[in-house]
Specification:
- This protein is mainly alpha-helical.
- About 70% of the residues lie in helices and about 0% in strands.
- It is built from 9 helices and no strands.
- Helix 1 (about 15-30) runs antiparallel to helix 2, helix 2 runs antiparallel to helix 3 (about 65-85) and helix 5 (about 110-135) packs antiparallel against helix 9 (about 205-230).
Length: about 240
């Protein structure tokens, strides 16, 4: 059963994101080249560093809320990593990536997309709820910060395509990876995450229903991740 944590911590200071960045950098040095989780970690680290830069530059109108949301968001991923390291089961959304992280038939771009799918589809809506509980506010109060973080996530997708797209001629139409790329949308995932966050928040006084909703969300995101990690070819 997936549990809805009831965070009671104080709001996260702006410099709290620096700690998250250091943790992700440490993870990056611990995993071998080509590790699927490491592929996602590298891309996510670049985006988190950009969010950190924008926080310090005053890009967000409410830096306290933005820092809290982004740290709670990152903590969900780091908790999944810790669970695997402790030989515990991570959320279903993350299991495909950890299970296939060294599969020779899965391309780096697939690893990155599967990580993004898990993090946005499962972690982001729960991070919104975590942040609302921490800050004592409704999801609507975080919508501007959610959208601004979403702008940075768009740069994540662009970074992935520039860094991991195979070959100088990009993809041929017959390449199976072309079809995988067309089957998943960052914009649709963000929209779904916001709707899921509002639903979980609306169900907060009905814990049984909330738990069931989150569990089904977790399972569904995991199924999509498994499809994104369909082995296509052997890596050279």
């Amino acid at each position: 059963m997936v549990r809805l944590e009831r965070f009671v911590q104080d709001a996260v200071p702006v410099h709290g994101l620096d700690t998250v960045v250091r943790r992700m950098r440490g993870l990056g040095t611990a995993w071998p080249e080509g590790d699927g989780v490491g592929v996602f970690n590298r891309v996510y680290l670049a985006v988190t560093e950009e969010v950190d830069r924008r926080l310090h530059a005053g890009h967000f109108e409410d830096t306290r809320a933005a820092a809290t949301l982004d740290v709670r968001f990152a903590e969900r991923y780091l908790t999944a990593v810790e669970a695997v390291g402790d030989e515990r089961r991570p959320p279903a959304a993350w299991r495909p990536l950890f299970q296939f992280r060294r599969h020779p038939g899965v391309r780096p771009l697939q690893f990155a997309l599967a990580g993004i799918n898990a993090h946005i589809g499962h972690d982001l809506p729960l991070a919104v709820v975590d942040a609302c509980r921490t800050l004592g506010c409704e999801p609507a109060a975080l919508e501007d910060e959610f959208d601004r973080v979403g702008e940075v996530l768009v740069s994540l997708e662009e970074h992935i395509r520039e860094d991991l797209m195979p070959g100088p001629d990009l993809l041929q139409i017959a390449d199976p990876l072309t079809h995988l790329l067309g089957s998943w949308s960052l914009d649709r995932a963000r929209d779904a995450a916001w709707s899921a966050a509002r639903a979980v928040w609306a169900l907060r006084e009905l814990p049984d229903l909330a738990e069931e909703f989150v569990e089904r969300l977790d399972t569904g995101v995991g199924l999509v991740g498994r499809c994104l990690l369909t082995p296509l070819t052997h890596r050279g």
